[in-house]
Task: structure prediction
Amino acid sequence: MSNLVGCREIESLCRQRAVSDREHSWKWLGEADRWSDLAHREIASRFQKHSMHAGPMAMGPNTIDGDLHK
Result:
């Protein structure tokens, strides 16, 4: 979880810096977006790892009735 928290903290710092450094705000907002993207990738990676280890019922039950109505 520390990677995700770290990404979010740096994103926040970059956004704060953009407010205080108006001349270079474009640069800081770009950096904030980069860190936000990294955080989203971290979340997606964790979700994929979790879903790969899920059991067969993670997708829901496979009912016989559902198969008969095809």
DSSP finds three helices and no strands in the chain. The CA atoms of residues 18 and 59 lie 43 Å apart. Helices lie at 2-20, 25-52, 64-68. The chain has a mean pLDDT of 84.
